[in-house]
Amino acid sequence: MEAIRAEGLVKRYGDMVALDGVDLEVQAGRVVAVLGPNGAGKTTAVRILATLMRPDGGRAVVGGHDVVRDPVRVRGLIGLTGQYASVDEGLSGLENLILLGRLLNLSKREAKARAAELLERFELTEAAGRPISSFSGGMRRRLDLAASLVGRPRILFLDEPTTGLDPHTRNGLWDVVRALVSDGTTVLLTTQYLEEADQLADRITVIDRGKVVAEGRPGELKRQIGGQIMHVRPTLATDMDAVGRILAELTGSTPNRDENTGLLSAPAADPLLVSALARRLDLSGIPTDELGLRLPSLDEVFLALTGHNAATERNAA
Ligand SMILES: Nc1ncnc2c1ncn2[C@@H]1O[C@H](COP(=O)(O)OP(=O)(O)OP(=O)(O)O)[C@@H](O)[C@H]1O
Ligand SMILES: [Mg+2]
To answer: Which segments constitute the ABC transporter domain (predicted)?
Structure first.
């Protein structure tokens, strides 16, 4: 069964086309990652699906209800964690969650119990009485996620849930998402991190400049760019030029060269190229620390699909 289906979503801001016919599908109980660099249209898509904004074209059905015709029904089924925390700064974590519970028509007792349970789950019990303004970024993010769970949503939208979090906090959030999914929650998350999509998602929709550029399972996407990547790390940095020339000759493509790691890599259509490379290096008397084949990373997939590098744009933004 589908929990989310969007067809041909279009959204314009003046002349700017933020979404240019986006299709999205999420099966119930699954995690789909919408992956894309800054400005790709991720937040716009989530806001439309969460009924916070109307599309200019196309349609979307969430939990069986049309987001434009039946927004109230949709809101009753979903939880949303925004890219920017949506909690009241002046109130404490506990007060925020109780308030939300009351807004969702829980009794005072139920609201308190639910708040305490969520604070515990997100390791916020100790800080529960402090105003949000004293929370760290990671604590805010966890409280924001807790807030979106007060109403036990069946469908959860997470807009860049881990951007700016340290690795420990990020791993903690990943565990929470996995636990929610094993309880049957459907999750649509957006991310700029290819590794995050790879870790959490059953399927990935890659969007770039308002268009879907690829869709599939993480492994399928990796295979889409074809074959494997041959990589080699010469022991001496002074050998990098010579190794680059040999790699180029064998693979027929310009090798990728990372001065920081000393690694050179190039797509290898034929796995036998590795032994050819080993022989050539041996004949030339070039020692290596590392030599082998691997599947391409999602960063390399993104580059191949869009012609530009997600990481570079991210850092430039
Ligand atoms: N309210 C707005 N008015 C005008 N343009 C907007 C508005 N909101 C978004 N845009 C533009 O629409 C495009 C898509 O924005 P959106 O926020 O959906 O991207 P995103 O994928 O969420 O990016 P990020 O990774 O930075 O959060 C961007 O070019 C953005 O500048
Ligand atoms: Mg965004």
So the answer is: 4-234
Centroid of ligand 1 to alpha carbon of 27 (angstroms): 26
Of the bound ligands, which one is closest to the alpha carbon of residue 35? 1
By residue count, the chain amounts to 317
For residue 198, pLDDT over 50 is answered with: yes
pLDDT confidence of residue 309: 64
pLDDT of residue 219: 80
**Residue 317 CA: which ligand is closest?**
1
Residue 298: pLDDT band (50, 70, 90) is low
| pLDDT over 80 at 223, yes or no | no
Cα of 37 to ligand 2 centre, how many Å? 9
Beta strands in 171-313 (DSSP E): 186-191, 203-208, 211-216, 228-234, 256-258, 263-268, 288-294
Q: Which domain holds residue 241?
A: 227-295
| 230 Cβ contact list (under 8 Å, min separation 6) | 247, 251, 265, 266, 267, 268, 273, 274, 277, 292, 293
Residues 32 and 120 grouped into a single domain: yes
Ligand 1 surroundings by CB, under 6 angstroms = 13, 16, 18, 36, 38-44, 83, 192
